[in-house]
Amino acid sequence: MTTVAVLGGGAGGRSAAVELLAAGHTVRLWNRRAETIAPLLETRVLPYRGVLGEGAVELNAVTVDLGDAVRGADALVVCLPSLTHAQLFDDLAGLGPLPPIVLNPGHTGGALQAREVWRRAGSPMPPLVELSTLTYVARVGQDGVVNTTGRAGTVRAAPLPGGESALEIACELFPGIGAVDNVLASSFSNVNMVLHPPGAVLGLAWAEATGGDFRFYVDGMTPGVGRVLTRLDDERLSVAAAYDLALPSLLEEMSAIGTVEGAQGANNVVEAISGGEANRTIRGPDSTEHRYYREDFPFGLLPFVALARVAEVEVPVAEALLRIAAASIGPGLLEHGRDARALGIEQMNLNQLLASVQTR
């Protein structure tokens, strides 16, 4: 079987480790901060519950040394928040030749940012594939148990040119992956880019007043939020169409993933999302430090707007959400995000960008 270095010791990385070990793979778990994985460093025993079962598995290795984690591995699976990607990519680019990399997920523009980091480092780009969304809905409890409440049924994936071997290994490791045209299609299939920002902005007062004591996808999914979310999704589909990509709507994508149930509420965003079993109990953000703000704006909407500008498509709702978020939280929110420069697309027009991502 495959030796996999799972990079990221949070809920996503732990869920991936559980599933990969159950499939018979050898798994090394790496995390930059030792305190996040302190018990695992001592015992290598990872407790879990939820849709992947209940029990504990023993990891083959747990480390905070990136070189040790990747040395001799057959694949690297990155399960980290996108705000950590630039530093990780830079560190990996300095390690020399690497096995295929699976961004699980790439969020919006993850593969493009990786390519730009390797280009600036002057290092050969390893095979790389970007997944549209994390393959799990999961949280790590105070008891250290990872509770995986959902496992994606379908995830979009695309490699950078020359990264076909990464796509092959991703399909081997994570059943349910469906290949799409290119990394623009996988980036535009990032549901969190549409799902989180409207409720995060419109529910900011509630988040700050209650410290997150509400259910984000139920109590926070009001008709007004639903209308903004629908407009934002229309913009996503319009930008994708400008790149000659026909993508499913948000609800169709969430149904394929498994976070809304089938066609239930197909014409009612609020009903469909609030009724999704995997997300039903997830609490709202407790502050503006939450990833719905720190990740989904600078690494979701910001690169989306950059890609929209290359395509010369107007996206007023996305731009308004970015402005309000920056005004209410502070301009530093977007300072280190995935803008056109970080994506390496500053000097590109639509045709040049398309040509740079085509794999066939």
Task: Describe how the helices and strands are arranged.
Layout lengths: L2 E5 L3 H12 L3 E5 L7 H6 L1 E6 L4 E4 L2 E3 L2 H5 L4 E4 L6 H9 L7 E3 L6 H12 L6 E4 L4 E5 L5 E6 L3 E5 L4 H10 L3 E3 L3 H6 L3 H4 L1 H6 L1 H7 L12 H20 L7 H8 L11 H6 L16 H4 L2 H15 L4 H14 L10 H4 L6 H8 L3
Parallel strand pairs: 1-2, 1-6, 2-5, 3-10, 6-7, 7-8, 11-12
Antiparallel strand pairs: 3-4, 8-11, 9-10
Helix pairs in contact: 4-5, 15-16
CATH architecture title of the largest domain? 3-Layer(aba) Sandwich
The CATH class name of the largest domain reads Alpha Beta
Largest sheet: 8 strands, mixed
- Strand tally is 12
What structural class is derived from the secondary structure elements?
alpha/beta
Q: CATH superfamily membership of the largest domain, which one? A: NAD(P)-binding Rossmann-like Domain
CATH topology of the largest domain: Rossmann fold
Q: How much β-strand is present in the residues?
A: 5-15%
